[in-house]
């Protein structure tokens, strides 16, 4: 299982991913899901991957081969073409493997987040589906997720705002979103890869890999849990004394049970 998240704000991008690819009683595997493609000063792309590891590795290998040859992501004119380039490689791998996987009832599962910037454009964030088509992150919906997304979404929905959230705040939102997912689903786990991209950096300047025992990760987790418990004590309570008669809420009534050999009360 996987969880990856990308957040886009007025200051840039925050991208984060877990590293667990398989989980069981006696088996835990770790694999990096964050991949960077950089021409310093000209363009920078970060791709986060979820789905079948064999398929995402094939897609990444093809993209890397193109990039090293000066093609693909190294030469596209704009970020939309970059998203289409990544989607094209997903389709290319699909043409090789999808038929044989589905013949054995195995889903063709690949989802990617592509974030970064080409010089002359604003930073962008796209989701690439298994069919190769792209979805762009917008100012009204300033984050995208792939993988096991449901546990980490509520805090993003409530907190992240494109024009208000700073990059440092987006880092905290991303870590709490990942930590909430790891807390509720053992199939998502550390290390966490975390990249912060400020507008016009055009290279990787702020990157951290947070292991399970990282003290900063533990401090954020502890502080967030304590803050939640404190917040509960300050939230207004429901007043049950003003409730309407319970008959209005569909409660069924019957007579008291008849006691055999005795009177009915």
Structural notes for this entry:
By secondary structure, the chain is of the alpha+beta class. It has a single domain (3-229), classed as Glutamine Phosphoribosylpyrophosphate, subunit 1, domain 1, CATH 3.60.20.10. The protein has helices spanning 53-68, 79-103, 153-159, 167-184, 215-234; strands at 3-9, 12-17, 20-23, 28-30, 34-39, 43-51, 110-118, 124-128, 134-136, 143-147, 192-198, 206-210. The strands form three sheets. The protein has a five-stranded antiparallel β-sheet with strand order 10-1-2-11-12, covered by helices on one side. A five-stranded antiparallel β-sheet has the order 5-6-7-8-9. It has a two-stranded antiparallel ribbon with strand order 3-4. Strand 11 (192-198) and strand 12 form a beta hairpin. 35% of the residues are buried.
Looking at this protein, list some descriptive labels.
5 helices, 265 residues, five-stranded antiparallel beta sheet, alpha+beta, Glutamine Phosphoribosylpyrophosphate, subunit 1, domain 1
Task: Please write out the topology.
Elements: E1 3-9, E2 12-17, E3 20-23, E4 28-30, E5 34-39, E6 43-51, H1 53-68, H2 79-103, E7 110-118, E8 124-128, E9 134-136, E10 143-147, H3 153-159, H4 167-184, E11 192-198, E12 206-210, H5 215-234
Antiparallel strand pairs: 1-2, 1-10, 2-11, 3-4, 5-6, 6-7, 7-8, 8-9, 11-12
Helix pairs in contact: 1-2, 3-4, 4-5
């Amino acid at each position: 299982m996987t969880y990856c998240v990308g957040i886009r704000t007025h200051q840039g991008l925050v991208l984060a991913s877990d590293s667990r690819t398989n989980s069981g009683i006696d088996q835990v595997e770790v694999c990096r899901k964050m991949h960077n493609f950089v021409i310093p000063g000209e363009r920078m792309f970060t791709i986060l991957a979820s789905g079948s590891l064999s398929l995402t590795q094939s897609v990444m290998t093809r993209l890397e081969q193109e990039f090293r040859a000066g093609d693909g992501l190294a030469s596209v004119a704009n970020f939309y073409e970059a998203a289409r380039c990544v989607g094209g490689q997903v389709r290319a791998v699909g043409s090789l493997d999808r038929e044989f996987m589905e013949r054995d009832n195995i889903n063709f599962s690949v989802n990617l987040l592509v974030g970064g910037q080409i010089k002359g454009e604003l930073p962008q964030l796209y989701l690439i589906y298994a069919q190769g088509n792209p979805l762009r992150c917008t100012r009204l919906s300033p984050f995208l997720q792939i993988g096991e997304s449901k546990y980490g979404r509520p805090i993003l929905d409530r907190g992240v705002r494109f024009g208000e959230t700073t990059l440092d705040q987006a880092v905290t939102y991303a870590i709490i979103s990942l930590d909430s997912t790891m807390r509720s689903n053992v199939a998502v786990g550390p290390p966490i890869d975390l990249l912060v991209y400020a507008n016009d950096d055009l290279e990787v300047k702020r990157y951290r890999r947070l292991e399970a025992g990282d003290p900063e990760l533990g401090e954020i987790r502890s502080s967030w849990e304590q803050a939640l418990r404190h917040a509960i004590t300050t939230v207004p309570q429901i007043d049950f004394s003003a409730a309407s008669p319970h008959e209005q809420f569909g409660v069924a009534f019957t007579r008291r049970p008849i006691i055999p050999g005795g009177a009915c009360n």
